[in-house]
Amino acid sequence: MRLVTLQSKDVVNIVNGRKIGYVIDVEVDLCNYKIDALVVEKDTLFKIFCFFKEPPTWVIPMRCVMNIGSDVILVQIDE
Fold first, then answer.
1. Three-state DSSP state, 22
2. Backbone conformation region of residue 17, classed left if phi is above 0, alpha if psi is from -120 to 50, else beta
3. Is 90 exceeded by the pLDDT of residue 78?
4. What's the CA gap between 43 and 11, in Å, rounded?
5. Which of 11, 34, 39, 55 sits 20 to 30 Å CA-CA off 64?
């Protein structure tokens, strides 16, 4: 799967049903050739005001990813 296809999917927490945001990057283990984590930009109303700093992000390990569907990625994160 390509990063471009992951970036077009919503990331939803199955614990509370809320949309977390979108995948902006991945962390890769180059020795084992596998994805270690998804970097997700939080979906907030105030990201318009993040001109001079990076938007808030979450690093979600792959052990928390439950399912990758055609238009959504389901994760289990206890907040």
1. strand
2. left
3. no
4. 10
5. 55
